[in-house]
Amino acid sequence: MEELLQCVLEADVLKPAKHAAQDVVAALGASRAYKHAGDLAQQLRELSGARLVALTGGSEGCTLATENKHAVVPPFALQTVVDATGAGDAFLGGLLAGLHHDPQTTDLESASFPSVVNKARQPLDC
How far apart (Å, rounded) are the C-alpha atoms in residues 109 and 17? Predict the structure, then answer.
């Protein structure tokens, strides 16, 4: 657990699932329960020093938190979910690619960062 916490403290971007974020926040010393994902994401960001926390909650969507902003991005609606294995990894890959490649997103405080996540949510044209 100590190695995990060290990584958390060194990361610029964190993407935990909601339940994992609660565990990490508790391990970092916070003792309160969080009713709202935005409060949890902001607390994790403050404790870790990360520039961006993208807290995923499955059907609840994603809550993004930076030092001065937080936003909720609704989930992508699917007619049928066959298997959710790898969904968080795929989301993180899309988020990081969007942050890297979107020319309008020059920093994590950009007003357009929720649009980067929305681009990552769009279905692939295969």
Answer: 22
